Amino acid sequence: MAVTLEHPDSTLPSEQLSSRAAAEAYVGGVCFKLGPPALIGAELEWLTVHGAPSAPGRTDAARPLPADVAAALGLYAPRSIAPDSPALALPGGSRVTLEPGGQIELSSAPFGSAAELCQRLEEDTRLLRDLLESRSIRMVSASADADRQPERLLHLPRYRAMEAAFGGIGPFGKLMMCNTAATQVSVDAGADIAEVAARWAAAHAVGPALVAAFACSPTLNGAPTGGWASQRMRTWLRLDNARTRPPAEHWSDPVAEYGRWALDVPLLCVRRPEDGADWAPPPCATFADWLCGALDEEVGRRPTVADLHYHLTTLFPPVRASGHLEIRYLDAQPEHVWAVPVHAIDALLSTPRVVEEATAVAAPAAGQWSEAARHGLADPLIRAVAADLLALAAAHAATPAAAEELETAARRCRGGQPPAPL
Fold first, then answer.
1. 108 and 93 Cβ atoms separated by less than 8 Å
2. Which of 100, 102, 97 is nearest to 44 (CA)?
3. In angstroms, what CA-CA distances link 55 with 3, 65, 142, 145?
């Protein structure tokens, strides 16, 4: 459930934004770094338990206390749970964060190849597991908690505000925050507007089929009744449509349009730096409303550049622009196959020709986010598209090993089988 952009507030200008046009232009510049696509990164998340669950993959044990996680991580502990920590990167370049329900996350450094990325992440994962197990904390490779009710362990103002805002909509906000885990893949946006538009469209077009291909969260404790292949994705789709649904899957100029969309998303909360708290804005008040003066009486000030960055971190579409394209719609995978979706995204966006072909292959299932999350590979059309996309990815994989993994996944999809632990 990663929710951060790359810049800490301390590095951001504090001056006010002069106009909506200036704010939109700023969003386009910071959210889309133009250049030839060259790098790939990933974020892996795990549920955690303190002590021994009854069986592998189960979460029927206590959540670890943040203080215990901080003690286990030592110099690698994030400042959210250890304010004085140097928060060092692990030897492979990954940084560790803790999510509200105790989920542990590795955010990789960017690498020039998916093979190197996966190798470094694997090394850091082994070290992370060893560090946590030194305090009897175990990582669970599951994308939805099937055993525990949601419980928020981090009591930061941000998460209090999020829980309060989402709690007025339904149960899915707290479930998403505390009881789900994802695999996220980040790729460069593109060299120019035309390439950004093509890659943006492709990342969305392939989304529903890949949601189904990698759906492995049929059970989520605390969720309303109803069978879903990806209960994790269900939480996002039912959470807050203005904030979490795709803003537009086909934009001719995503750099400009993303800024317009972002300013019209309702504010989740407004920071009060003077007391470290967050203030709940009036319902449906947007960043654009704040910018134009409609909230002067309530807030007492106009937004700064730092406020705009904070607002951007409260937007959770399936593909988020964060300087790069952050693909956020994939379930966390079983331990032995977590690299497969990384290789799939890498291959499907590898060249402009493959991007075009992938978009065409994905077209029959494009836009079917709810159907893919609910039915997964049981939907014949989505299953066929998923298998074809993985076969296309295998044909353009960067290494023979990645091609073999993708071919295996394509065969699994044709047989209608979800990813499964060993």
1. yes
2. 97
3. 31, 21, 13, 14
Distance, in Å, from the CA atom of 272 to the CA atom of 306, rounded to the nearest integer, reads 12
pLDDT digits (tens, 9 = 90+) for 68-97: 999 999 999 999 999 999 999 999 999 999
DSSP secondary structure letters along 100-133: TTS-EEEEPPPBSSHHHHHHHHHHHHHHHHHHHH
DSSP 415: T
pTM to 2 decimals?
0.94
DSSP state of 230: B
Instruction: Please check whether residue 216 is in contact with residue 333, taking contact to mean a CB–CB distance below 8 angstroms.
Output: yes
Distance CA 331, CA 305 (A): 33
Element (H or E) spanning 272, and its range? Answer: strand 270-272
Token pair recorded at residue 18? 């002069």
For residue 31, the Cα-to-chain-centroid distance in whole angstroms is 15
Residue-wise pLDDT for 160-178, tens only, equals 888 888 988 889 999 999 9
